[in-house]
TrEMBL record, chain A:
InterPro entries hit by this protein: NADH_UbQ_OxRdtase_chain4L/K, NUOK/Mnh_C1-like
Name of the protein described by the UniProt record: NADH-quinone oxidoreductase subunit K
GO molecular function: NADH dehydrogenase (quinone) (non-electrogenic) activity; quinone binding
UniProt membrane topology term: Multi-pass membrane protein
Main subcellular location of this protein, as a coarse class: membrane
Residue intervals passing through the bilayer: 6-23, 28-48, 60-83
UniProtKB/TrEMBL annotation, chain B:
GO MF annotations in UniProt: NADH dehydrogenase (ubiquinone) activity; quinone binding
Family classification: Belongs to the complex I subunit 6 family.
Keywords: Cell membrane, Membrane, NAD, Quinone, Transmembrane, Transmembrane helix
Source species, domain of life: Bacteria
Enzyme Commission number, as recorded: 7.1.1.-
Organism this protein belongs to: Candidatus Planktophila dulcis
Phylogenetic classification of the source organism: Bacteria, Bacillati, Actinomycetota, Actinomycetes, Candidatus Nanopelagicales
Catalytic class of the enzyme: translocase
Protein's UniProt name: NADH-quinone oxidoreductase subunit J
Membrane topology type: Multi-pass membrane protein
Length: 99, 256
């Protein structure tokens, strides 16, 4: 086995996350799929760090985790705010601009 | 030169399919809570991958921050927003799903074939040299020398995000909250005095735990407003007649 196999897993997980963002309609599930994409990218960083023999990739993955944590905090606050005014967590219901 | 030992290969071929299946399950299951649990599993497998790839610190952080904090936050919000929040799997935009799947197959195939064809120009080095002083020490050395500026920027980002969440979650009342005195006055000025002393309690029956059974009014009819509105909405209201005694035994025998 060679370490590139981790990259394949990472690519597959990223693709699945992207499909989830497009296909699912519940805002929270969409958000979880974004998290899946971020995690898949992290796996690539860690694998490349190992392939290249330096720790820089791990530092970048660490920063990604921090940014993802920020994103979760703000994103979930937005979802809760929308839910409070519209009583729905479906992304189809937040379409006021269209009408 | 990096050689991958057999245990890691076994671990990889065991966990990688499981994580991909769990990620696919995330898309296919109907309930958001199940999606969250599957995502937690994917994150745990990723943590194991990190640890197997000599990224001990990141593996632990992955478990603590992601499966610990982030997934808890997700589950918390799910409970707040309502587990039964409408999440149908029906297509709302016609033709979206086939297009999405085709695009995903194309994109995934492109990525995989790219990785398959790419040549790095050198063999994989492995992290034995970089981790010679320990993984955490190596990371700390980089974090506080080369990456000290991004580190500070990220810290300000964290503070901003916390403030932003507080601003978003802050709820300003449009009208001031009614005081107890105003509530009491409103109750007595209401349409009927029936609820002035408070609503009746649910019925108390010897043969049933009675929160879902209406109380009986003095004339023997049931009082539906003695049941909590939540139970009523769920349809969990029972008929109180079945818990009444059929006939009252009036023959009291005097003892002695």
């Amino acid at each position: 086995m060679n370490p590139y196999n981790y990259l394949y897993v990472s690519a597959i997980l990223f693709t699945i996350g992207a499909v989830g963002v497009v296909v699912r309609r519940n805002a929270i599930v969409v958000f979880m799929c974004v998290e899946l994409m971020l995690n898949a990218a992290n796996l690539s960083f860690v694998t490349f760090s190992r392939i290249n023999g330096t720790l820089d990739g791990q530092v970048v993955a660490f920063f990604t985790m921090v940014v993802a944590a920020c994103e979760v905090v703000v994103g979930l606050a937005i979802i809760v705010t929308i839910y409070r005014s519209r009583r729905s967590a479906s992304i189809d219901d937040a379409s006021l601009l269209k009408r | 030169m990096l050689t991958i030992q057999t245990p890691e290969a076994v671990m990889f071929w065991f966990l990688a399919p499981l994580s991909v299946v769990a990620a696919l399950g995330m898309l296919l299951v109907k309930k958001a809570v199940h999606s969250a649990l599957l995502l937690a599993w994917v994150m745990i497998t990723l943590a194991i991958f990190y640890i197997a790839q000599d990224a001990l610190f990141l593996g632990i952080v992955q478990i603590v921050v992601y499966t610990g904090a982030v997934m808890m936050l997700f589950l918390f919000i799910l409970m707040l927003v309502g587990v039964d929040a409408s999440d149908s799997l029906t297509e709302t935009i016609p033709g979206l799903r086939p297009i999405a799947i085709t695009a995903a197959l194309g994109f995934g195939g492109l990525l995989v074939s790219l990785i398959g064809r790419a040549k790095l120009g050198h063999d994989a080095y492995g992290l034995t040299a970089a981790n010679s002083e320990g993984n955490v020490q190596g990371l700390a050395q980089l974090l506080f020398s080369t990456y000290v500026w991004p580190f500070e920027v990220v810290s300000s980002l964290l503070i901003t995000a916390a403030l932003g969440a507080m601003v978003l979650a802050h709820h300003q009342r449009a009208v001031p909250r009614a005081t107890q005195r105003e509530q009491a006055i409103a109750r007595f000025r209401g349409a009927s005095l029936g609820s002035a002393a408070g609503l009746p309690n649910p019925g108390v029956f010897a043969r049933h735990n009675a929160v879902d059974v209406p109380a009986l009014l003095p004339d023997g009819s049931a009082a539906p407003n003695s049941i909590s509105a939540t139970l009523k909405a769920r349809g969990d209201m029972l008929d109180s007649a079945q818990f009444e005694l059929g006939e009252v035994d009036n023959t009291v025998t005097e003892e002695k």
